[in-house]
Write a structure and sequence with these properties.
The complex is a heterodimer of chains A (342) and B (414). By secondary structure, chain A is mostly helical. Helix content of chain A is 73%, strand content 6%. Chain A contains 15 helices and four strands. In chain A, the strands form two sheets. Chain A has a two-stranded antiparallel ribbon with strand order 1-4. In chain A, strands 2-3 form a two-stranded antiparallel sheet. The longest helix of chain A is centred in the C-terminal third of the chain and has 34 residues. Chain A is globular, with a radius of gyration of 26 Å. By secondary structure, chain B is of the alpha/beta class. In chain B, helix 16 packs across helix 18. Classes of the chains: A mainly alpha (342), B alpha/beta (414). At the A-B interface, strand 2, strand 3, helix 2 and helix 14 of A face helix 3, helix 4, strand 4, helix 16 and helix 17 of B. Strand 2 of chain A pairs antiparallel with strand 4 of chain B.
Chain lengths: 342, 414
């Protein structure tokens, strides 16, 4: 393709990416360096149905004058990044100095919201991703070997978890594992402990969230692998059969190597998705046991006082986190690409 | 008994709403009215009352949703504002004041406000900023039949509530007799606020935005909450008001601290067992730790008028909403929906809890610019203590640290 043609071809995409991806990120990064101005507080008398009280309020006129002078707010540099709600450098060094042993230090670090959330998010991401890839692959191989007439039906059922809205799916499962729900009762009967409650136990809640994560994302891996299976070269497969390869050996030495690039693709997308885990935590109302960077952003934006700078900072940290997570996969892809082109 | 009465009353309510639609004597003649607010029955009544004013040259729309808090500020910041009015409570008016999106109502009250009670006017620094139409508070909801069975009077203190819970469990009537909206987040923080104020605490050092919760009152409040949670469904950290009410309706709990605005509809749902309907009873809020102030907060709900709209729309909005809270709406089941602050309202049986709360000198929910940040910090940090992962002192220190970081960012602290 000529360069000129390519440029015209690519222009609409580039414009859309600039408008909908690049500019918002610039705006978010800018927001994370600025905070609202210091409020001018005054004592006022408030009266209502329950009588009068003297309370603190904001002097609107004075505050508005400061805002008009510098609409972006106060420039604070990396202050929000290092505060307790985010990277908490001060608290980290405090914890390091005052902890007797390493265990005590870890306890104190995990008590900080950002690191507690990171611990869950990374556990979730690194357990969900390989399991959902394996499960998706297993479903794809199983469905592919079915009779032609059954395939359509099975594909539909296998896709259901992805069709269900994540929040609704999580909510349904959450009701089922409730101590009054069918799965919750079954579990407590299984271990003969009438007081067993999934929602009261952090480890069980984490397991629940991870199982939900695998269940809801496996169909995505399934669809990709199923499509890949249709392109497996039949002659290679047949020659393997003639050589006496068992079914497992065919999968191990023909199908898996053929689908390897797709594994990278699914891993890439799922690492990105799982790092931003939000819906299951809300659906299961698991905020007491598990937080993620996304739930922090939501909580900052939906409180009675919106904390835009804090939400922006957490967003930037999420982007950085995803970038770090994806680097090994991207490097691998780049190497494969180079190896092929030589 | 209650069910029959409520069924009869709701039939009347349908007629009441139609009658109300006809009575638009004081409706505006022109302008745009657009209301955003919460969605419980009393506010739906007010929304419907304003909608009744819609006409050829009066455009009225309402957006009543549980997410009202996240959309009212952005929806009022534009010029002209999308929403000409937000229905808010004493906690949420602060966010609108902080962003300066609502206008003083003194001129509108003087010109069109005849018939409003003086105690309906919410004045801040001498200016009327909102018109309240109902009051709300959390108070005791209990099962009279269960307490009778164990031979106890309804508790007036949290210590008595613990004793009653133990008696009910010991008698084998219920395994988890105490209910409470203890869901991590807003609800848990609100229960802490109740208990903390009951122990005589004050969230901030006087006249400043500095936190003041890591003290004896804070520790006592947390320990009492922990003691109560021993008698709750083990999933209590996931139970909001809806889930707590469901537990009560199912006959699983006998004692709980619940919102007055929920009392009227608690046992009217379908499938509530007869003994729950018969045993349903409410009383005033409880005190704690020998204190005189009940461990609860007083709330009002009211309407505001947006700043960034034309005077014509402001007048239309004020008149439509004033019409919606006209004394003539108090027919059918409307009087049971809330403790109305409207002239001519006669308290119903559902209102005794809120009235008792107001008469016992309960504290109004603090109307401070930084209270929202404190509430969020409490909601995020207290769950660790409730699960037994850390000490009360540590949890309160975490709350203060989280609050301080947020308050610095928002410019309330240096």
């Amino acid at each position: 393709m000529k360069h000129r043609t390519f440029i015209w071809f690519f222009m609409p995409t580039a414009a859309a990416m600039l408008l909908f991806i690049a500019f918002p990120i610039v705006s978010v990064v800018t927001q994370s360096f600025f905070t609202p101005h210091e409020a001018v507080l005054i004592e006022v008398e408030n009266c209502g149905p329950f009588g009068c009280t003297t309370e603190t309020s904001i002097d609107q006129e004075a505050t508005q004058a400061i805002r008009d002078a510098a609409p972006l707010g106060r420039f604070v540099g990396f202050d929000i990044y290092s505060d307790r709600g985010h990277l908490a450098f001060g608290e980290l060094s405090d914890a390091w100095r005052s902890s007797a042993d390493f265990g005590g230090f870890v306890d104190r670090v995990m008590n900080l919201p950002f690191y507690g959330a990171l611990a869950f998010t990374l556990t979730y991401t690194f357990i969900c991703t390989p399991f959902l890839i394996a499960l998706g692959f297993a479903i794809a191989v199983a469905v592919n070997s079915l009779h032609r007439r059954l395939k359509g039906l099975m594909i539909f059922f296998s896709l259901l978890p992805m069709i269900v809205t994540p929040l609704i799916g999580a909510l349904v499962l959450s009701w089922m594992v409730d101590s009054r729900g069918i799965l919750g009762n079954f579990l407590s009967w299984l271990v003969s402990d009438p007081d067993l409650s999934v929602k009261a136990s952090t480890p069980l809640m984490w397991i629940c969230l991870i199982v939900y994560g695998i269940w809801s994302s496996a169909p995505f891996a399934f669809v990709v692998f199923y499509a890949g299976l249709q392109t497996v070269p039949q002659d290679t497969l047949e020659s393997a059969q003639i050589d006496g390869a068992t079914r497992w050996q065919q999968i191990r030495f023909v199908i898996i190597p053929h689908l390897a690039p797709l594994v990278t693709f699914v891993a890439l997308i799922q690492l990105m998705d799982n790092f931003r885990v939000l819906e299951p935590i809300l659906g299961f109302q698991a905020q007491a046991h598990a937080q993620s960077l996304s739930t922090f952003i939501l909580s900052d934006l939906s409180g009675e006082t919106r904390q835009l700078s804090s939400a922006a900072t957490t967003s930037v940290l999420t982007i950085i986190g995803i970038a770090i997570l994806l680097t090994p996969v991207l490097i691998r892809t780049w190497r494969d690409f180079n190896a092929k082109s030589h | 008994m209650f069910l029959k009465k409520f069924a009869a009353v709701s039939a009347v309510a349908l007629m009441g709403t139609t009658a109300m639609a006809g009575g638009h004597a004081a409706c505006p003649t022109e302008g745009r009215v657009s209301i955003v607010g919460n969605e419980f029955p009393a506010i739906q009544t007010v929304g419907a009352g304003a909608m009744a004013c819609a006409g050829d040259s009066v455009e009225v729309s309402t957006n009543l949703t549980a997410d009202h808090q996240t959309i009212n500020v952005p929806g009022m910041q534009g010029n002209p504002a999308e929403y000409t009015s937000a229905i808010i409570a004493n906690s949420s008016i602060v966010a609108l004041m902080n962003e300066d999106v609502i206008r003083p109502l003194d001129d509108l009250v003087a010109e069109h406000g005849d018939g409003l009670q003086p105690n309906q006017l919410i004045t801040i620094n001498g200016q009327v900023m909102a018109v309240a139409f109902m009051a709300n508070a959390q108070h005791l909801v209990y099962r009279a039949d269960v307490l009778e069975e164990v031979g106890l009077e309804p508790p007036t203190t949290y210590e008595e509530m613990l004793a009653a819970a133990e008696a009910i469990r010991a008698a084998g009537i219920m395994e988890n007799p105490v209910g409470g909206a203890y869901a991590a987040g807003w609800n848990l923080a609100q229960e802490f606020n109740n208990m903390f104020l009951g122990y005589g605490g004050s969230h901030f050092k006087p006249g400043t935005a500095e936190p003041n919760i890591n003290n004896e009152a804070g520790v006592n409040a947390l320990n009492m909450m922990k003691a109560l949670s021993e008698y709750m469904n083990p999933d209590f950290l996931t139970h909001d008001s809806n889930a707590t009410n469901a537990e009560y309706r199912a006959g699983n709990t006998a004692l709980m601290n619940m919102w007055g605005s929920r009392a009227a509809t608690l046992v009217t749902a379908e499938g509530v067992p007869q003994e729950v309907i018969d045993g349903f009873a409410i009383a005033g809020p409880m005190t704690v730790g020998g204190g005189d102030t009940p461990a609860t907060t007083l709330w009002w709900d009211g309407f505001t008028v947006a700043k960034n709209i034309s005077d014509e729309d402001a007048v239309a909005t004020f008149k439509a909403l004033k019409n919606a809270i006209d004394p003539s709406i108090l027919t059918g089941d409307v009087p049971t929906q809330a403790v109305w602050l409207i002239d001519g309202y006669e308290p119903t049986e559902a209102a005794v809890g809120v009235f008792a709360a107001a008469n016992a000198g309960s504290v109004p929910y603090p109307m401070l610019p930084f209270m929202g940040l404190m509430h969020t910090a409490l909601g995020n940090e207290l769950a660790d203590f409730m699960q037994g992962n850390e000490s009360a002192e540590q949890a309160l220190a975490d709350v203060e640290a989280a609050y301080t970081a947020a308050a610095r960012e928002q410019g309330f602290l240096n």
